[in-house]
Recover the amino acids of this structure.
């Protein structure tokens, strides 16, 4: 049965000439799991919002959107509210009330359901989603993952027949995102609810999806099952192909035939069939060890300790806790970052990565041990000296830096205290604007920018203070593949100028691609550290999917290019 | 706060109870009734908040009581029994001194009852009570309670982010501190307003604005609550009867006069006592029952 | 549009129904006003005198406090009822809740400086940007909810009333054109209102609570002792208005136009 039939929909925002959606025609069958993707600004959110009239933006629309055979806006408001569930991006913004149980009941209250029925439905939902243990809590006490799960549960309590989700996991860490997508898949499989979602994490979503729809500049360019969709994108040589899962891209890059793999498991099997035979034939039958691992790490550390280059940031046996009786957040942490280095720190949530950045920034003080930034104790250096010309910090949420009503004013605001002439200021700003490619955005309000653009504007603000060392906290959070690429380029440019970068991130693929050295953070300390390739080669689980796919053949194959090369040489 | 038996009753019971005891404590200045109410309030606050309450009562309430008692004779010179004259020539009378003491006791009693109220009547109970009557406003209250901790958290984040671009609101001259502090408030406002739009979307997505909205709560009005409310009404009725018959009144000026105590007034006192000690009694009975059950198993 | 009152409905509605909606809105608005006026008249003519009589004849010594408390509570009733009756939209609730929460968070953020609070400033800005009713509701809500954090007490209704009425008056005077959006005008108004309305009424409230038998000397003493606190409070309001009014009003205007919060 068809649940949605979208026919020739063209939509334009008021006062804009280019339509946001162009002649979109789609069919969604009941019980399907449909992923929608495309670059930021391609119209995917606009499309999704058209599926729920209460959230449809205003503007002029042509064409029809039928929900169960009838124009969706013509269904009565009650049906629209209960049958079409909509989950938005931010876990925090969607929560309305202060208690978990009240939030769960919110939609049902709107529908005018009586108390005994709400009681039952809320109980069902809490059990299905595993919310019982935090059912009576204040929402303020929940983690981001729990909040998003609560939002989903609160929608599900209304028994929708279709769930529309707009980048629901973009603000979550990988573990929470995987849990959320797992729950979503469970809902789809066990309850038969139709799912339509947009997502950046295609690697995890595509294996769950029945269909992938790709939008480009408001038009549907691909609408097929994931494997075929990937093939089509490749044939079109479309930039979105870069966001496809690693196994698929490796398969395409290698030029070898065989079924298209979607997951790491399939990728491994495929790789075995293509390259494994060749290795077995060559008679070695052994896994290739990367050069000098794991002793490499030790040697590497030793070399560095006597390193020729001076340290930009140095932590020596640092201990930190938030309160006298609190457990230690940072335990015996020693780390040396040389000038001109690009260090990526990976590790799970709550291991103390962000705390470490605050320590380096002098915002927190260790109770034991020593921290030196360019030879000075950051906690004792005046902020004027520390943050002007020495240390730049890009916070996790770029919005906490924006003060003014246009990007340009915001950049000028940054130079308020500086003793510079107007011309000098303008010159410095022009330089940063060029660097961060902000020219077309200067007149806009910072909050009207997309996530990736906000990130760049914030980076530009920080760079105006001309730091020699840049600290980044989860810079890829919420960015799509395109903006990640762009950020990576900017960081490379900055690094090539001889500047130092310390980046904390969950994003293994990004670190593998851009950082020069990586460290694993765990339980308040750095437990391993090595050159990027050797680092990931030494890990077994906490590594790129390309590496997980190929590590049984060659541990040193970390990036997609490495694995593609492996395929080619083995053949 | 320890687990309190009375706090687990239905919010209607709790609210009715506090309205009754606080109103009664403010209405009557009869010394016996005042003593009963003060005693009830102190014992209950002790039960609810133990050490903290003791400190609160001794450190703040006692000096306040003395201060308030001494304040009245300075302004009020009515009364027949003159004790001495102030330097200004105004008399200090026994009546005005006692009146001041009574007023002070009343004030302190009310404050202590309110401290109990704050411990028992948590925000969700209040929101539930008014959810049916004022659905829009009670939803606003709930939203504010949701936003405030979030905003405080965000203020912390913004100030950290600002400090790491050299805009420190904790150091420097007062003007600079104030400037940076205001910048934080300003950033917070934009952030709050822009992000709230998504909250409105999420409300609309879940059908907010449809007619006939209901109000859900976890509370159930069961037999126990009916019983408690019944007793509450019963005691309150007796006390009010006493008031109607003039047993609760006291006249201070020009000379102190009370109705002479009769058997009926003792019934009133007993009822008032039962009313003021009701939560304590409920707790004791429950503790006793629990011990009994525990000893059997 | 700058002096539009807060009215729900998103931009889409505003575009879809243009002509007839305006007159309908105006009619609804005038009906709303008349209903509130009616209710207020009823309160003033019947309920308040009845309360006073009850106080005089029944309550004896405690009449001042109870009568004043009840009257304060009555003033909150028409606002609450009118607001509930017109079935507020999600975005209206959100704007009131956000502003009240900013005021409460601001009150909490400055907890270490007694009386130096931004609440009055934010309430005035709310009244100017979104109209008298929104001003009242933001003020009363901020007064009420902040006491969930600081402790409810006999002072709660008085604070609700004071904050609320300041927001209401700000909205009203702005609509009449007597209050301008300029810093000077807002600061002057804010300082005066804090000193006279807030200080004035809160002190009456505490005197009524403190000394049951009302007399003028006690009130004068209360004003004298409270003066410095009230002055600090007024200065705080002026400072906050001076710095925050322009950026905040700009931000609120942006939200109004961007998300179609305005009754056009």
């Amino acid at each position: 049965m068809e649940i949605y039939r979208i026919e020739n929909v063209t939509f334009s925002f008021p006062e804009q000439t280019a339509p946001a959606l162009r002649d979109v025609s789609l069919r969604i069958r009941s019980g399907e799991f449909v992923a929608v993707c495309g670059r930021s600004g391609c119209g995917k959110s606009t499309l999704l919002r058209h599926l729920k009239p209460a959230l449809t933006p205003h503007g002029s629309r042509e064409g029809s959107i039928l929900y169960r055979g009838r124009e969706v806006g013509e269904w009565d408001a009650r049906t629209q509210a209960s049958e079409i569930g909509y989950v938005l991006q931010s876990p925090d913004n969607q929560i309305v009330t202060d208690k978990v149980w009240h939030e769960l009941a919110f939609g049902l209250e709107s529908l005018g359901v009586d108390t005994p029925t709400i009681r039952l439905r809320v109980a069902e939902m809490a059990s299905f989603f595993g919310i019982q243990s935090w059912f009576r809590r204040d929402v303020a006490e929940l983690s981001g993952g729990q909040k998003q799960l609560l939002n989903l549960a609160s929608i599900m309590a209304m028994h929708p027949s279709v769930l529309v989700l707009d980048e629901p996991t973009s603000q979550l860490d990988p573990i929470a995102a995987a849990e959320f997508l797992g729950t979503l898949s469970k809902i789809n499989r066990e309850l038969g609810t139709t799912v339509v979602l947009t997502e950046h994490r295609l690697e995890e979503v595509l294996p769950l999806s029945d269909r992938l729809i790709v939008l480009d500049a408001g038009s549907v360019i691909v609408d097929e099952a994931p494997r075929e969709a990937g093939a089509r994108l490749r044939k079109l040589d479309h930039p979105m192909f870069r966001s496809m899962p690693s196994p698929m891209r490796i398969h395409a890059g290698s030029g070898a035939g065989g079924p298209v793999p979607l997951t790491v498991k399939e990728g491994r099997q495929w790789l075995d069939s293509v390259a494994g035979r060749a290795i077995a034939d060559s008679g070695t039958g052994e896994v290739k060890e990367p050069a000098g691992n794991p002793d490499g790490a030790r040697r590497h550390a030793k070399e560095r300790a006597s390193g020729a280059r001076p340290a930009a940031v140095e932590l020596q046996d640092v201990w930190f806790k938030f309160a006298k009786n609190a457990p230690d957040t940072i335990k015996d942490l020693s780390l040396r970052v040389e000038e001109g280095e690009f260090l990526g720190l990976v590790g799970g949530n709550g291991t103390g990565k962000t705390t470490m950045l605050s320590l380096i920034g002098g915002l927190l003080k260790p109770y034991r041990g020593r921290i030196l930034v360019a030879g000075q104790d950051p906690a004792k250096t005046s902020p004027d000296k520390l943050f002007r010309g020495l240390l730049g910090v890009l916070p996790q949420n770029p919005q906490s830096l924006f003060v003014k009503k246009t990007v340009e004013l915001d950049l000028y605001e940054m130079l308020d205290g500086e003793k510079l002439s107007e011309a000098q200021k303008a010159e410095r700003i022009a330089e940063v604007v060029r660097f961060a490619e902000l020219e077309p955005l200067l007149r806009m309000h910072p909050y009207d920018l997309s996530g990736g653009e906000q990130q760049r504007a914030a980076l530009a603000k920080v760079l105006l203070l001309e730091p020699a060392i840049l600290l980044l906290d989860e810079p890829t959070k919420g960015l799509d593949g395109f903006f990640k690429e762009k950020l990576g380029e900017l960081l490379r440019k900055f690094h090539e100028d001889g500047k130092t970068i310390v980046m904390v991130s969950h994003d293994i693929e990004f670190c593998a691609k851009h950082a020069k050295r990586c460290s694993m953070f765990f339980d308040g300390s750095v437990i391993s550290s090595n050159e990027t390739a050797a680092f990931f080669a030494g890990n077994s689980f906490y590594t790129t999917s390309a590496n997980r796919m190929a590590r049984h053949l060659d541990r040193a194959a970390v990036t997609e290019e490495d694995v593609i090369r492996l395929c080619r040489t083995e053949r | 706060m320890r687990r309190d038996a009375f706090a687990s009753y239905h919010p209607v019971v709790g609210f009715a109870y506090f309205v009754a005891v606080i109103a009664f404590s403010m209405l009557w200045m009869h010394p016996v009734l005042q003593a009963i109410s003060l005693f009830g309030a102190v014992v209950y606050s002790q039960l609810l908040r133990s050490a903290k309450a003791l400190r609160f009562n001794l450190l703040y309430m006692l000096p306040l009581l003395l201060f308030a008692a001494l304040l009245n004779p300075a302004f009020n010179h009515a009364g027949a029994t003159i004790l001495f004259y102030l330097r200004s020539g105004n008399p200090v009378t026994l009546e005005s001194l006692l009146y001041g003491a009574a007023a002070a006791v009343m004030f302190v009693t009310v404050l202590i009852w309110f401290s109990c109220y704050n411990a028992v009547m948590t925000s969700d109970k209040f929101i539930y009570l008014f959810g049916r009557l004022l659905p829009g406003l009670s939803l606003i209250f709930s939203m504010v309670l949701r936003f405030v901790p979030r905003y405080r958290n965000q203020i912390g984040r913004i100030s950290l982010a600002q400090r790491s671009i050299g805009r420190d609101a904790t150091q420097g001259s007062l003007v600079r501190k104030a400037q940076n502090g205001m910048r934080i408030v300003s950033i917070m406002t934009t952030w709050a307003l822009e992000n709230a739009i998504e909250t409105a979307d999420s409300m609309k997505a879940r059908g907010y604005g449809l007619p006939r909205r209901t109000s859900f709560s976890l509370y159930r009005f069961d037999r126990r609550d009916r019983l408690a409310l019944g007793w509450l009404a019963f005691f309150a009725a007796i006390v009010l009867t006493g008031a109607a018959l003039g047993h609760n009144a006291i006249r201070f000026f020009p000379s102190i006069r009370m109705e002479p105590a009769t058997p009926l007034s003792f019934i009133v006192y007993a009822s008032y006592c039962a009313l003021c000690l009701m939560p304590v009694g409920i707790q004791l009975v429950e503790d006793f029952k629990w011990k009994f059950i525990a000893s059997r198993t | 549009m700058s002096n539009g009152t807060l009215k729900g409905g998103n931009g889409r509605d505003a575009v879809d129904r243009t002509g007839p909606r305006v007159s309908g809105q105006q009619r609804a608005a005038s009906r709303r006003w008349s209903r509130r006026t009616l209710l207020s008249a009823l309160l003033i003519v019947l309920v308040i005198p009845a309360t006073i009589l009850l106080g005089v004849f029944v309550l004896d010594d405690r009449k001042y406090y109870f009568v004043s408390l009840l009257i304060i509570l009555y003033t909150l009733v028409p606002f609450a009822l009118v607001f509930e009756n017109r079935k507020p939209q999600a975005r209206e609730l959100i704007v009131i809740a956000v502003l009240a929460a900013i005021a409460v968070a601001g009150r909490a953020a400055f907890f270490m400086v007694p009386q130096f609070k931004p609440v009055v400033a934010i309430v005035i800005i709310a009244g100017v940007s979104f109209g008298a009713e929104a001003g009242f509701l933001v003020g009363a809500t901020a007064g009420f909810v902040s006491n969930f954090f600081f402790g409810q007490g006999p002072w709660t209704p008085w604070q609700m009333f004071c904050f609320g009425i300041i927001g209401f008056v700000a909205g009203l005077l702005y609509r009449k054109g007597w209050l301008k959006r300029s810093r000077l005008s807002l600061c002057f108004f804010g300082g005066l209102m804090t000193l006279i309305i807030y200080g004035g009424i809160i002190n009456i409230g505490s005197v009524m609570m403190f000394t049951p038998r009302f007399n003028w000397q006690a009130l004068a003493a209360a004003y004298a002792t409270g003066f410095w606190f009230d002055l600090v409070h007024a200065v705080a309001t002026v400072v906050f208005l001076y710095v925050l009014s322009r950026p905040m009003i700009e931000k609120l205007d942006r939200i109004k136009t961007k998300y179609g919060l305005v009754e056009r």
Summary: The first helix of chain A runs from residue 44 to 50.
